[in-house]
Amino acid sequence: MSLISPFSRRLYLRIWLAVVGGVLVFAFAVGMAWRWAAEQNQQQPPSREIRITDAAGRTLVDGVGLRQRRDPSEGVLYRIESATGEVFEMHLSPRPPRPRPDERGPAAWFRPPFGFLWMLALVGIAVTVGVFPIIRRLLQRLEQLQRSVQRFGEGDLSVRVAEQGHDEVAALARQFNAAAARIETLVQSHKSLLANASHELRSPLTRIRMGLELMQGGTPSPAFRAEIERNIAELDQLVDEILLASRLDSGAADVGTVEPVDLVGLAVEECVRVDAELHVGSGDDADAMAAPVEVPGVSKLLRRAVRNLLENARRYSQGEITLTLTREGHDAVLRVCDHGPGVPPAQRERIFEPFYRLPGASERSGGVGLGLALVRSIAARHGGSVVCEDRPDGAAGACFTLRLPVTR
């Protein structure tokens, strides 16, 4: 049992044995069919037209000859019945013995019927030997995939499978690599989120603890209460954004119901909160100003994205903030522009990373570094994108462009 079990668990050996078994069954079936045909031929002795003439060409016997059953060692006997009803017998002497293999002529085992059997045997051996390396090469790729899956399950998230060919095994390898890359990205993202969240949570907690120690049981001043409330609000915002970022990164399906969202009404409400100026449409086109801009999406997520862009602009802007909402082709385009210090071109992608702050930015300026990262995650969730650009008029400041497809 210990010898059979490992052998039977090898898929390539099982496939090879199946091919060999098929060849053997085919050869056996052909042999049985040939034997049956030979037996049928012996059961029905053949008849033929026989005509015997003399040296002058005169016909002596003309009729149908029927081969009679008898021992092959006694020769062949034909019973001939002529057209006139006369019966004749023609006796042929036995064949001379077959030559031995060392005599002249082909070897005995090359002549029928053994020649055909030898041919089947040679074909079976050729198939048995030829298909083994082909099957072994195919199944080696499955074994490599199995070893990679095992290593991945043991914790090596960087393992990948070589993608060879265009068959089902190659497609399976590509799907495994894509899934492995996605899982590795999620794990690394969660590790980074946990590490940065622990650091960000520690800052307001430390300020609250220091404030409580300084208070020493006395009545807190209004300024002190305001500081404590600000730190608590910062903690609440951080926890909320961390939870939302985690759910978006993991692809959670229960983030809200997808429905038509009126971006104009949503933008009006959010602009009022931060005292921003809203422009809908392009130019002075009254129809464009009145036309609604709807996109399919989760209302609370889109509201969070617009709010984060406006709050980020208000945090760093030194002048008015404008939100422009237009429709370009199949996309709804929302631009939030400010008059702040702007974002250097080299930093315009990094500011969308979780917990990343521009050099020189202070924690006291507000924000926890997750706002823009959430905007990009929400945009991706809705099939859109967000980028940081220069202001269209060339003035100082930054402009964040959020594109969302009108149809999905």
Structure write-up:
The chain has nine helices and eleven strands. Mean pLDDT is 75; it is low at 1-8, 102-106 and 283-290. The protein is elongated. It has a five-stranded mixed β-sheet with strand order 6-8-9-11-10. It starts with a helix and ends with a strand. The longest helix has 48 residues, at 168-215. It has helices at 4-8, 11-43, 114-153, 168-215, 222-249, 263-274, 286-290, 299-316, 371-381; strands at 47-53, 59-67, 76-82, 87-92, 258-262, 277-280, 294-298, 322-328, 331-337, 385-389, 399-405. Helix 2 packs antiparallel against helix 3, helix 4 (168-215) packs antiparallel against helix 5 (222-249) and helix 5 packs parallel to helix 9. By secondary structure, the chain is of the alpha+beta class.
Reconstruct the topology from this structure.
Blueprint: H1 4-8, H2 11-43, E1 47-53, E2 59-67, E3 76-82, E4 87-92, H3 114-153, H4 168-215, H5 222-249, E5 258-262, H6 263-274, E6 277-280, H7 286-290, E7 294-298, H8 299-316, E8 322-328, E9 331-337, H9 371-381, E10 385-389, E11 399-405
Parallel strand pairs: 6-8
Antiparallel strand pairs: 1-2, 2-3, 3-4, 5-7, 8-9, 9-11, 10-11
Helix pairs in contact: 2-3, 3-4, 4-5, 5-9, 6-8, 8-9
| Helix content range | 40-55%
Put simply, the count of helices is 9
Principal-axes geometry comes out as: elongated
Which value, in Å, is the CA radius of gyration?
46 Å
Order of helices and strands: HHEEEEHHHEHEHEHEEHEE
Weakly predicted, low-confidence segments? 1-8, 102-106, 283-290
Q: How many individual β-strands?
A: 11
Largest sheet strand order: 6-8-9-11-10
Overall pLDDT confidence = 75
- Oligomer state of the chains in this structure: single chain
